[in-house]
Amino acid sequence: MEGKSKEREIVIVLPEDGDMVAIKDFLQKKLEEEEIDKNSRVILQEKVTLSGKEKKEIEKFLRKRAGLSSQKLSWVQHLAEEKRDEVQPESNAVGTVIPFVLPAVGREEPEKTLARGASNFSQVKEGSGVNQGREQEGEREMLPLKPREGEGREKRGLTPLPIFFTSGERMTVWGDENTILVQRTLRCGQSISYDGNVVIIGDVNPGAEVVAGGSIIVMGALRGVAHAGAQGDEKAVVAAFRLQPTQLRIAGYISRSPDGSTSTPEYPEVARVKNGGIVIDSLQPSLEKQLCAGN
Amino acid sequence: MGEVIVITSGKGGVGKTTTTANIGTGLATMGYKVVLVDTDIGLRNLDVVLGLENRIVYDIVDVTKGNCKLRQALIKDKRFEGLHLLPAAQTKDKTAVSPEEMKALCAELKRDFDYVIIDCPAGIEQGFKNAIAGAEKAIVVTTPEVSAVRDADRIIGLLEAAELYQPKLIINRLRPKMVKRGDMMSIEDIIDILAVELIGVVPEDEYIVVSTNRGEPAILDPNSRAGQAYRNIARRITGEEVPFLNLEEEEGFMSKLKKIIGLSR
Ligand SMILES: Nc1ncnc2c1ncn2[C@@H]1O[C@H](COP(=O)(O)OP(=O)(O)O)[C@@H](O)[C@H]1O
Ligand SMILES: [Mg+2]
User: Helices B253-261 and B187-194 sit at what angle, rounded to 10 degrees?
Assistant: First the structure.
């Protein structure tokens, strides 16, 4: 315990324009200002997309000047302010109304009823070899902190958040800052619409509606209509303690509850888009794993 | 200062008027000064249920428009000294009264009566808004049907929006045998969705029809099971703790009920 120096995390937003020389000048200044050394952890946010070659050059520069290993470096796309505004003209205000438009492509009529049952469940639990392999390889965002390319997490407005273990290790989760907490039950005729994630502590009764740009989590019974990823995000999920929706929509997919009274399980479940349809899984085995998979 | 309670439901025909008449009569038998206000303008029938139709000269619209004094429009019940009715207008439009006028009217009635009970019309428009405008408490009536429960849920949301929180719930026309067969929503099913406190369960009772036609509230008949349920509700309104009726005559049901309403015993 004695010699363990404290690790510092510094976020550097790279200048928007400027060539390599200008960027290096800028970084040199930052290195001095922030007293960055080999024990620092640096998150670089690029405002314009840099090429792989340019990134390599910057990493090399930091290694030489500050002794920073690439393990301690991570890249993040900086989300431009205007981009956020585009999606959300009314700022982050609670209850911002977003247009209820379903993308025309991939749209399905609510002919498909919610698939729930042994086949779906086991399918997911056992998983294809791909799923299992991924986990064993430890690709669950353990260190080094490196965003996977092509997954577009940064573009979706996710921010890397470090989780510290008491043992000293660290991992990163991708968090979405744009989330509202609703501490009440939505009754028949009431609706909430928000361009972000919505967490409801309460029930969503039949005849009530939740529309979210991101995911929807109901810490109660979801009996009304829920539309997650309302602007086309197919990675959005709908999770509820009791998932008994009248209708579920994720991005352009719509599914409805089966006709007639069917018994629903007495445990939390999550719905997401899989293989071109909305599929419901149990949320019990590992809540975290499933929610991560949704990201 | 009295208490203003609105009896509402959203859906029509679930028993608001029957409930208003019986609870009002019940409270009057207990010695309270009660006034029942019929706000179902254009579709009045509280007067008929109470058997007072033939006494109406002035109505609620006459009062709010200043055609008469409030005192002149109040009809004294033929059986109970403390019971009064302010009838609705039959020929006028719902918009003839405004929420502000209702508020003023309730404030005035509250000064003279222990309980001001408002019979709300069906629906969620002007008539509903008028009925709840002056109310301090609300009782929501529902029947064990999905559509009625849905409307009750909607109403509870609207009541909350109007700052009438924690309404009490009456489940009317319950048929324990049907519930047992699984053909009717159970008390648990309804509470599960509405999540409000139950103040009474009134069984389906043929005698209600008889009493309505006679203009004598069922609460006055000691043999009516619905009447017994209404007597208990009236007592609960006054703050008394009254155990729930055993509707099924079967062991286990009472304990279940107690669990639902949180009665420790
Ligand atoms: N517990 C009951 N058992 C049998 N019939 C009932 C009961 N409650 C109400 N009714 C009948 O239902 C009908 C509608 O009742 P009413 O009180 O006029 O409803 P609302 O005022 O909500 O429209 C009436 O014919 C009444 O006699
Ligand atoms: Mg009525």
Answer: 10
Q: How far apart are CA B118 and CA B108, in angstroms?
A: 14
| Count of structural domains within chain A | 2
Does one domain contain both A59 and A121? no
Is A144 in the same domain as A281? yes
Tokens of A274: 């899989």
Which residue among B41, B208, B211, B231 is best mutated to probe the pocket of ligand 1, counting the most ligand atoms within 8 A of its Cβ? Answer: B208
CA A123-A124-A125 angle, 5° bins: 100
Query: Which structural domain, as residue segments, surrounds residue A275?
Result: 115-294
Complex ipTM over 0.85: no
A215 vs A228: CA distance, rounded Å: 5
In chain B, where the domains are located: 3-264
Whether omega for the bond prior to residue A144 falls within 30 degrees of 0, making it cis, is: yes
Helix (H, G, I), strand (E, B) or coil at B152: helix
Strands A253-256 and B3-8: unpaired
What is the pLDDT, as a whole number, of residue A39? 79
B258 touches chain A (CB under 8 A): no
For the Cβ of B204 lying below 6 angstroms from any atom of ligand 1, the answer is yes
- Nearest CB to A205 within list B153, B158, B160: B153
Judge if A126 and A266 occupy the same domain: yes
Distance (angstroms) between ligand 2 centre and the Cα of B14 equals 8
pLDDT tens sequence across B188-228: 999 999 999 999 999 999 999 999 999 999 999 999 999 99
Are both A69 and A123 inside the same structural domain? no
CATH of domain B3-264: 3.40.50.300
